[in-house]
Amino acid sequence: MNSQTVLPLILEEISHSYISGEETLTILKGLNLSLKAGEIVGLVAPSGTGKSTLLHIAGLLETPDKGRVVVNGQPITALSDKEKTRIRLKSIGFVYQFHHLLGEFTAVENVMLPMMIAGVDQSTARKRAEELLSGFGLAKRVNHLPGKLSGGEKQRVAIARALANRPQILLADEPTGNLDNQTAEVVFKEFLSAARDHGLAALIATHNAELTDQMDKVAIMENGQCSFR
Length: 229
Known about the structure:
- This protein has 229 residues and is of the alpha/beta class.
- The protein has helices at residues 51-58, 81-91, 107-117, 122-135, 151-163, 181-197, 209-212; strands at residues 9-20, 23-35, 40-44, 66-71, 74-75, 92-95, 169-173, 201-205, 217-222, 225-228.
- A hairpin with a 2-residue loop joins strand 1 (9-20) and strand 2 (23-35).
- Belongs to the ABC transporter superfamily. Macrolide exporter (TC 3.A.1.122) family.
């Protein structure tokens, strides 16, 4: 396959179920979705329809019952947990609704951590972390602990952390859902700009129609599958 045609992420015929008491709940039913490099796709789904499950499968945090996950041309499903962790650390950035920053570490240290886990030396990790945070307007906040940051600032740090290892794929689960509308709009525009600047393939779950209007296309989850508009 020509490297120019390799898609960063392919989800092919993905099915997944959960056991709830005596009942089997089928959440995903032969779902297909792919992301191109530089493409930002909004994910819209009512609560309980499998949005988070889909993102976790795309992020190699869960394994589907059936179907194929392919990251940068490499089939993932049959790999060991160790190999999945290596690929996830190298290729995938994840942003959650709640920032999940480590409270005992400063903003810059939170962004440095994934790089250092990946084997980057401390001085190189710090330099990149400071550059990322500066890009989000946080140059004067790099040495602040999360408890000293506003909600919008914390989420900016979380986005910078997701970008730290230069992933090809960015996944986000309601990344501005915990912010007030004005802050959410500002942070989201910065988020989109960062994704476009880095040429990332991004899948962003949000209920905010004004935000999805800014994306390249929208995937709508219904009955365990995706349709696009």
